[in-house]
Specification:
The protein has 17 helices and no strands. It is mainly alpha-helical. It has 2 domains: about 180 residues, Growth Hormone, Chain: A; about 200 residues, Growth Hormone, Chain: A (Up-down Bundle). The longest helix has about 30 residues. The chain is globular. The termini are far apart. It comes from Bradyrhizobium zhanjiangense.
Length: about 400
């Protein structure tokens, strides 16, 4: 029974064959490195602000800068590398990531730290965009969302282990040491991708013209999918960007307690990531609506209990589950809407949309604090932004039903 539960790939009857091929797991390793550098700053925000002599909201812009770098870099690098072997693209992106983190560790001032963060971010969107296409091409049709979720497990493990460890590492040895540790992770991830991703993967695909690839941006459902990703995911980052000051200055935890609580949040992400992939494989429309609605409800619940320690930790666990349960459905929705000719660009653009949501959330959180509403207002603002993503998802699915009804009507 244990062997049977391990599953098999592409309908193979061999019970010991892994559910996912090694290449997908290699992409998971790359995602872990990239996810660690994206999220690690949340647990170091107070230390960075103090050393760089900036306010906490200004330090929070390091998250927005990274996210905007992803938003710009994803389509540009995806189009620039679209005729290159996909393995070569993935390795080049991991090299940019590694060099960028070393530059972060060496940055002497806030401006150069921001520039290094933006450099690092350029690898992010295209890596996940190309990686999503590679992952789905290696598995059976009914495992595509799970393949995406498997790659994104790297992000959840980054939050589960990398970010809390980075916060602890930064507290003990300084925030620069945390970025040096991520640089080492980048070197290891580069080696794993080099060893396990096949050199031929995607190389036999029929070349798509630039016009065909860019034409995906004219499809209403693709644009709606990108918009629901931006707003649906932005709510998380209204809260998560300022999680350290929320926990220490409002809820009343010590700085030493932040890392264990981030670990709890990471456990939630791991659970939600797997659950979202399975739900999307069973029914994409239901998964979209259900996960976005759950995220909005959890954020409302968090607003109600944020001042009480134990309930706040429980809601942070649920926030992790609800937030990452949205990832696979949102990514698969855009891939399906784009079709085969535009899927690589659309996939990268949706990763950019996730990060535009991150930037929007970090900015909205900073504005909320600067306007004097306080840390306690952040979950309410977050719930409102996520509700916009839910409305967009309902609208998109309504358009699907309307188009299906028109197609079903006999021609007059």
């Amino acid at each position: 029974m244990v062997l049977l539960r391990c599953g098999y790939l592409r309908g193979s009857s061999h019970p010991s064959e892994p559910r996912m091929p090694p290449a997908v797991l290699a992409l998971t390793a790359g995602a872990f490195g990239i996810g660690t550098t994206e999220f690690i700053i949340m647990g170091l925000l107070l230390q960075v602000a103090a050393e760089m002599h900036v306010s906490v909201p200004v330090a929070g812009l390091l998250i927005s800068g990274y996210a905007l770098g992803v938003f710009v870099g994803a389509p540009v690098l995806t189009l620039a590398t679209r005729r290159m072997p996909r393995k070569s693209v993935l390795l080049a992106l991991m090299a940019i990531f590694t060099l960028g983190n070393a530059a972060c560790a060496l940055a002497p001032n806030y401006e150069l730290l921001m520039a290094a963060r933006v450099l690092t971010s350029l690898a992010h969107g295209t890596f996940f965009g190309v990686g999503s296409v590679v992952a789905t091409s290696l598995v059976a049709e009914d495992k595509r969302a799970s393949a995406i979720a498997t790659m994104f497990i790297g992000l959840t493990v980054a939050t589960l282990l990398g970010v809390p460890f980075g916060a602890w590492f930064g507290l003990m040895l300084g925030w620069r040491a945390a970025f040096w540790a991520v640089t080492v992770i980048g070197v290891i991830a580069f080696a794993v991708v080099a060893a396990l991703v096949p050199g031929h993967v995607g190389n036999g695909d029929k070349p798509v013209s630039l016009a065909e690839e860019v034409s995906v941006l004219g499809r209403p459902q693709v644009l709606l999918g990108l918009a629901m990703t931006v707003f649906g995911f932005a709510g998380l980052f209204v809260v998560f960007t300022y999680i350290q000051p929320i926990l220490t200055r409002f809820t009343g935890f010590s700085e030493a307690a932040v890392s264990p609580i981030l670990l709890v949040f990471g456990v939630g992400l791991a659970i939600g990531n797997v659950a979202g992939g399975k739900l999307a494989d069973r029914g994409l429309a239901g998964a979209l609506i259900g996960t976005l609605a759950a995220l909005a409800m959890v954020l409302l619940g968090l607003a109600a209990v944020l001042s009480v320690k134990i309930p706040a930790v429980v809601l942070i666990l649920l926030l992790g589950i609800a937030a990452f349960a949205t990832v696979a459905p949102l990514q698969l929705r855009v891939l399906e809407a784009a079709g085969p000719n535009g899927r690589t660009l659309a996939s990268s653009l949706n990763i950019a949309a996730f990060n535009l949501g991150n930037a929007l959330g970090a900015w909205a959180g900073g504005v909320t604090i600067d306007r004097g509403l306080g840390l306690s207002a952040l979950p309410l603002v977050a719930a409102g932004i996520t509700a916009v993503g839910l409305v967009l998802a309902l609208w998109s699915l309504r358009l699907d039903r309307a188009q299906a009804a028109v197609a079903a009507c006999p021609a007059e």
